[in-house]
Amino acid sequence: MVTQVSKRYGQTPILDRVDLTVHAGEIVALTGENGAGKTTLMRICAGLTRADSGRVTVSESIGYCPQSPSLFELLNADEHIVMFGRGIGLSRTAALARGNELLRELDFAAERNTVTTQMSGGTRQKLNLALALMADPGILLLDEPYQGFDRGTYVNFWDHCQTWAGQGKAIVVVTHMLAELDRVHRVVELSPHPLRPKVHR
Amino acid sequence: MKRVNRVLIMAEMHGRDLLRRHVALGLLMVLPASFYLSSVGTGRDAVSTGGVAMAFAVGGATLFSALSSVDVDQRLILGGYRPIELLLGRIAFLAPVAIVIAGAFTALMAGISHPSSPGVLLLGVTFVGLQSVPFGIAIASIVPRELEGTLVLIGVVGIQLAVQPDSTVAKALPFYGARRLIEESLVGHGPLAGPILQIALYGTALLIIARIFIGSRLAVTSHQPT
Fold it and tell me: Which of A47, A74, A86 is facing B221, going by the closest CB pair?
């Protein structure tokens, strides 16, 4: 739950008293023009950026998939999986089992020893998404997670969202893909001026 | 135990990442060697210059390692790591690298310049390498980007090389103690405890600075439960 969150970068106001509530099992699409503050709001919700005022409360652990993959350039998928798995207390074997299951679900196609700089943008993004899911979080914050996906994977991504929502996860997806908005439960638009969300349906 | 495992896995992953950067690895050796070899004809100052120049290589590698992974570090903290574990993981990999480079580089300088005390030379050069790790991390934790960090690194190490070894400015810089050890190795006498104490104090101060600033730079807010 986001309550009256505001954020400025220098003199530029980005978010102005934004409220947003997402329930378990709900998929919310966060839309808005470039510069409306979507990524900033997601980062505040994830805890990576501090809001100037307002507060965020959560009932579950958070999984965050950033817009551009935050990965080590010269590590491969398995190495990333082991590293992120260790953060949540998984052994090497358990982390690989969990991570590879997620990668299979997302049709990850790279060779095991391919490092991230040699992966295509879409493949890198699948790894990025799988890492966000490693801890089986109750809240998923996905910032345009499908960039570089081919058409089939893109359609599958929305199927996955519905599966995850069915498992009780609360999901927020930053998206510009208005054609897919019928696949979410609610659309929230962030407007640059004034910076207040408007609920469309 | 979990903490140790997380530190070790970070050390392993930093190692895997750096060991795949073959050109960078070559430059880690070539850079200080080129300082030394280009001035070897000028006398014993070459050993001191080459030894301290190792700070460019190891400090630069540390700086890059820390600054290029701020985003992934923050994500790892969101995923359960603590800033101190990321810091220690980086040190756990880079410190042995510094020792290996120092060993090879000392062998090169000892073979050409014949210091009176090769053991003290090894100690001095190793301390330059080890001190470069917290030095690079401290810079990376304070400055925002690679360019600024590189300029600070060049500035500090450059001044250390340029000033008279016993000047007041030299004593205030991080590699003063290690440089003194290197110079002691050439004449073969003099106290070692003072320089080693200076190195230890400076290294500790750099690590404290790094810990404080990394904590704030990589901070992840834990939201209140509903």
Answer: A47
Higher pLDDT, A114 or B211: A114
What 3 state SS string does B165-204 have? CCCHHHHCCCCHHHHHHHHHHHHCCCCCHHHHHHHHHHHH
- What is the pLDDT, as a whole number, of residue A196? 46
Residues from chain B that touch A58, judged by Cβ atoms under 8 A, are 223-226
On chain B, the residues whose CB falls within 8 A of the CB of A1 are 226
List the domain range (segments joined by +) for residue A99.
2-199
Residue B223 is assigned to a structural domain of this protein: no
Domain that holds residue B54: 2-217
Which CATH number covers residue A137? 3.40.50.300
A27-32, strands of its sheet edge to edge? A62-65, A139-143, A170-174, A27-32, A186-190, A197-199
Contacts 24+ apart (CB under 8 A), B21-25: B21/A74, B24/B61
- Helices A92-105 & A121-133, crossing angle to 10 degrees? 130
Label residue A38 exposed, middle or buried (CB < 10 Å: 0-12, 13-18, 19+).
Answer: buried
Residue A54 region by backbone torsions, left for phi larger than 0, else alpha for psi between -120 and 50, else beta: left
Tell me what ipTM this predicted complex has.
Answer: 0.88
Establish if B226 touches chain A: CB-CB under 8 angstroms: yes
What is the C-alpha separation between A73 and A117, in angstroms, rounded?
5
Cβ separation A48–B224 shorter than 8 A: no
Nearest CA in chain A to B75: A70
**Peptide bond just before A194 cis, omega within 30 deg:** yes
Residues of A with CB under 8 A from a CB of B: 1, 45-48, 50, 55-59, 62, 64, 66, 70-75, 79, 82-84, 86-89, 115, 131, 134-135
Round the average pLDDT of chain B to a whole number and report it.
Answer: 90
The span from the CA of B86 to the CA of B7, in Å, is 7
Bridge partner residues of A188 (DSSP) = A30, A199
Least confident residue range of A46-60, A160-174, B34-48, B168-182: B34-48
Number of domains within chain A: 1
